[in-house]
Design brief:
This is Spermidine synthase. With 279 residues, the chain is an alpha/beta fold. The protein contains 10 helices and 10 strands. Strands 6-5-4-7-8-10-9 form a 7-stranded mixed sheet, sandwiched between helices.
């Protein structure tokens, strides 16, 4: 039976060490670019695809969870500063840079090797409106206050979600870093107890239960919470989703339905249900 270093929140490395002690670590955390006929993907070793880019349309959001995360636009339609945690192949960063031409997009990435691949994924060069910072996101956000309109959490390593990007202290820092009515969006990666723990911690940090949606049925759960938010006006959000789609934006109607269904009639103490049992 495996013995976890932190039984309440075992890391991906804990799991691998317990079940596959002979597996060489040096091959697991190496970012690898894989070429397909139509796509270019960023992977870590033998593990899952971190990001995928359509070669003929580098700005398109290929992976469904990235489109789900962009639903922050329903709550914050004109951000001036978007902070992205985790560069990967730059899907979210590139799309935000294009979608919101008046916004500054700042991306925090801890792995220099990932940053070095930016040209292969058509990630823009640093400028007044776009920059990639090599830093530990937990330490970086701890220094910010009232700084961003949107924070997108999509930072993972070869073993999943790092513990320091899923702690009470980190979510407290996210709350402090957001401006009034700012939006935090978190890709929780997987359903189950780890995602439920993250959702509960976000709820404590923001003093309210996050809204929940998911990429596709059974796909990545995505949590979204608005700082200093009032009760949601669901008819207005449905109308906003229709308007965005009519103006050529992404389709958010299904995400409004998911968030409304998960929000309806659930007391705050049962917030984890939308992650574990979302449809």
């Amino acid at each position: 039976m495996p013995s976890w270093k932190n039984p309440a929140f075992p890391s991906g490395q804990d799991v691998l060490d317990a079940f596959f002690p002979e597996l060489p670590r040096r091959h697991l955390d190496v970012p690898v670019v894989r070429e397909g006929l139509r796509t270019r993907s960023l992977c870590f070793g033998v593990l899952d695809v971190q990001t995928a880019m359509c070669k003929s349309d580098p700005l398109a959001l290929q992976l469904p969870y990235t489109r789900a995360m962009m639903a922050f636009e329903l709550f914050q339609p004109a951000p001036s500063h978007i902070l992205v945690v985790g560069l990967g192949g730059g899907s979210l960063s590139k799309y935000c840079h294009c979608r919101f031409p008046r916004a500054v997009v700042t991306t925090i990435e801890i792995d220099e090797r990932v940053i070095a691949l930016r040209r292969q994924f058509h990630i823009p060069a640093d400028s007044a409106r776009f920059r990639v910072i090599h830093a530990d996101a937990a330490a970086h956000l701890a220094e910010l206050h009232n700084d961003a309109d949107v924070i997108l959490l999509d930072g993972f390593d070869a073993f999943g979600l790092p513990a320091n990007l899923a702690s009470h202290a980190f979510y407290d820092a996210c709350h402090a870093a957001l401006r009034e009515n700012g939006v935090l969006v978190a890709n929780l990666l997987e359903r189950g107890s780890r995602a439920a723990a993250c959702l509960e911690r976000i709820g404590y940090a923001f003093g309210q239960r996050p809204f929940c949606t998911h990429a596709v049925r059974g796909g990545n759960p995505v949590a979204m919470v608005v700082k200093t938010a009032s009760a949601p006006d669901w008819p207005a959000l449905h109308a906003r989703a229709r308007d965005i789609a009519l103006r050529g934006g992404l389709e958010y109607h299904a995400h409004v339905k998911n968030m409304e269904r998960n929000d309806s009639g659930r007391p705050a103490r049962n917030a984890v249900a939308c992650v574990v049992h979302g449809t």
